[in-house]
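Following up on my earlier thread - several people asked me to post the actual chain instead of describing it. Fair enough. Here it is, all 181 residues.
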Amino acid sequence: MAADSESKLQLVRRHIRDFPDFPKQGILFRDICPILKDPAALTAVTDLFEEHVRKNHPQVELIVGLDARGFLFGPLLAQRLGVGFVLIRKKGKLPGTTASVTYDLEYGKAEAEIQEDAVAPGQKILLIDDLLATGGSLYAACELMKKQQADILGCLVVIELKELNGIDKLKSHPVFSLVQY
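Reply from S.P.:
Thanks for posting it. Predicted structure:
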């Protein structure tokens, strides 16, 4: 990694804040809010994602962001790349005809959806979110994109929590994470 990229990565790391025992006892929450508050850190995230995508996925046609933090980074990256951005939302949040997928949570089930005409069959997409933990929501988003017959190039996340092995659920899709814990 070039020195400039390494300094950007260090800046991003310094802007991830830890909150022990949140949202419950025994959880160490990694907070991205300081990244969003600092223009240089936010630019560094976008720069690093852009550098990766231009090098590894120059054929991307669409960035697909997961509800809700994927909405923070996805549009910035899409604008830089000159491609579109679409949303994957929680059930019931999008107007019009939607396609959906149900997935398991730690305590129950959830449903994610996308507007039916948001992604064309064969369209080359990258999924983006802030965090890869257990992999449930990113896996569901990949399944939703398969349903739409999208060509999934990979997934982008700011933070990967390696000890939770979420990447195992995404074996067939490359995952690029800026910071790993």
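The first strand starts at residue 17 and ends at 20. That should answer part of your original question.
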